[in-house]
Design brief:
Blueprint (H helix, E strand, L loop, with lengths): L1 E9 L9 H13 L4 E3 L4 E4 L2 H15 L5 E9 L7 H18 L1
Antiparallel strand pairs: 1-3, 1-4, 2-3
Helix pairs in contact: 1-2
Amino acid sequence: MLVAFSVAPSGGENPDASVHDAVAAAVRVVRESGLPNSTSSMFTELEGEWDEVMDVVRRATEAVAPFGTRVSLVLKADIRPGHTGELTGKLQRLEQALKDSVSG
């Protein structure tokens, strides 16, 4: 499965309302998990089996908790049994479709 998620604290004491330290704590958990992952400016994507992915999301959420009085988690999942390598595979198919549409 692929999961795209965003986790952020609220109610913290950072005067500029920046959450980069909290997000760094969450991304550190993701990267240390060893699962295929990618982080953009708004989401982190993670690929693996249901239990291992959800465990990483839970631990990433827990890593953010000390930075505020509450935590917001946004999660989207693509559950496609029997498929792996989709973190990059989906993008490769998209790029090929774009290339084909220009040359076709």
